[in-house]
Design brief:
flat; mainly beta; 164 residues; 37% strand; two-stranded parallel ribbon
C-alpha cells in the first residue's frame, strides 16, 4: 500500500478508536426508558366528597424516595361535561371538537417536600360550584436539575366538589 493511502486510512481509524474509548464514560440515561414513579400525593377524597368554602382539607404526600425541594400544589376546577365550542383539525388531519371545561386553577405556595402535608382552606375556583363542576389537587415536584432543563413528576388526587 502506498504511504499516502496509509496516512489517509490512519486518521479515521484513530478517530474511531478515540470514540470507542469514550463510549463507557458517556451518560446514556437518555437511552433508558422512562419509568413512571408511583404517585407521591396520598390524599384520596371519599367518592362524592363535597366541601363548602371555608372548610379545611389536608393534602398529604409521601416524601420517601423524593429528592429535596418543594412540592408545588395547585387546586384545579372544571366542568365534568365540557362544552363543545367548535371544531378544528388535529395533527393527523382529523376533525375534532374543541372543548371548553370552563376551568381555573389556584397555585398554592410551595411547601418543602419533607413537610408531607398542607392544609388548604377551601375556596371557590373560577366560579365553579355545583353538581356540574369537579375539583382535584395536583402535586408537582422536580426530580432532576441540570443546565439543560429540569425533570419533574406530578400526579393528582381524585375528584371532589365544592358547593357555595
Amino acid at each position: 500500500m502506498a504511504p499516502s493511502a496509509m496516512k489517509t486510512l490512519a486518521l479515521p481509524a484513530l478517530l474511531l478508536s478515540g470514540a470507542a474509548q469514550a463510549l463507557p464514560s458517556l451518560n446514556l440515561n437518555f437511552l433508558k426508558p422512562r419509568v413512571p414513579q408511583p404517585c407521591a400525593v396520598k390524599t384520596m377524597f371519599p367518592d362524592g366528597a363535597t366541601y363548602k368554602p371555608g372548610d379545611t382539607i389536608t393534602i398529604e404526600w409521601s416524601a420517601a424516595g423524593l429528592p429535596e425541594g418543594n412540592m408545588a400544589l395547585s387546586v384545579q376546577s372544571g366542568l365534568i361535561t365540557p362544552i363543545i365550542t367548535g371544531y378544528g383539525y388535529n395533527w393527523y388531519g382529523q376533525l375534532v371538537p374543541i372543548l371548553d371545561f370552563k376551568g381555573g386553577a389556584v397555585f398554592l405556595d410551595p411547601v418543602p417536600i419533607e413537610d408531607e402535608k398542607l392544609e388548604w382552606t377551601v375556596a371557590v375556583v373560577a366560579n365553579a360550584t355545583g353538581d356540574e363542576y369537579q375539583y382535584y389537587v395536583n402535586g408537582m415536584y422536580y426530580t432532576h436539575y441540570s443546565d439543560h432543563g429540569d425533570s419533574s413528576e406530578s400526579c393528582d388526587t381524585n375528584n371532589f366538589q365544592v358547593f357555595a
